[in-house]
Amino acid sequence: MSCDFCQKPGGALLWRDDRLRVVLVDEPGYPGFCRVIWNAHVKEMTDLPSADRGHLMVVVLDVEAVLRNVLRPDKINLASLGNMTPHLHWHVIPRWRDDPHFPGSVWSAREREGPPRGLPDLDAILRDRLAVRVGNGLPR
Amino acid sequence: MSCDFCQKPGGALLWRDDRLRVVLVDEPGYPGFCRVIWNAHVKEMTDLPSADRGHLMVVVLDVEAVLRNVLRPDKINLASLGNMTPHLHWHVIPRWRDDPHFPGSVWSAREREGPPRGLPDLDAILRDRLAVRVGNGLPR
Predict the structure, then answer these.
(1) How far from each other are the two terminal CA atoms of chain A, in whole angstroms?
(2) A102 touches chain B (CB under 8 A)
(3) Contact A77 B80 (CB under 8 A)
(4) What is the pLDDT of residues A83-108, one digit of tens each?
(5) ipTM at complex level
């Protein structure tokens, strides 16, 4: 079976441990768009034992906290869909009122181009902040 | 400030305690579409203390477990967006391969009509199952 998240990192690696990884996705108009991807090929949250569910959500919310602190978005969107890639992963998406889809979801019809936005070296900044907040993890 | 989830239940009440409520949304083509709504007007998960985040996610995942058990969907979608209504709530959405938007999100372009689907008395069934799984909660 071919699965994108079994075969590829899914973005620029920001943090990882032996159960999951956090990656930065290159999505134009959406600086700081992160994914938290469970390493094992599991479909649903409720396929995980309770301790693993808790660990995954703690990391998802640590990513939310770091993104809020660094980027000061108007809103955070959290989603675990997996209809196309049924390998457990969370989208953590900073949103701004003038971004391409606001107030729709990033999967809704595009409303506008949206301004250029971001920070130089955002990946390095997020790596540092996650290492402080979540802990050192494994080497990249 | 006018807020839909401060003023209205947001769906048919299935379960509640002193912190949150679970409601069934009447969304054609999506039987079992539930929302878990935090009672207080809070914007983001990381605005909650850690114990409250944990409680909310435990209930969200209990709803997922009940929906999988009762409806046997092909996938569950979880999302906390709040761009239109920035009052913390989670969508817990059973998905089927032939539903109106699959494999897109329910906010994506509609792909087809989708077959009629559901169970008679689904609200009563879900109320009973949630009472068993999450605990008795407060009277409706």
Answers:
(1) 26
(2) yes
(3) yes
(4) 999 999 999 999 999 999 999 999 99
(5) 0.97
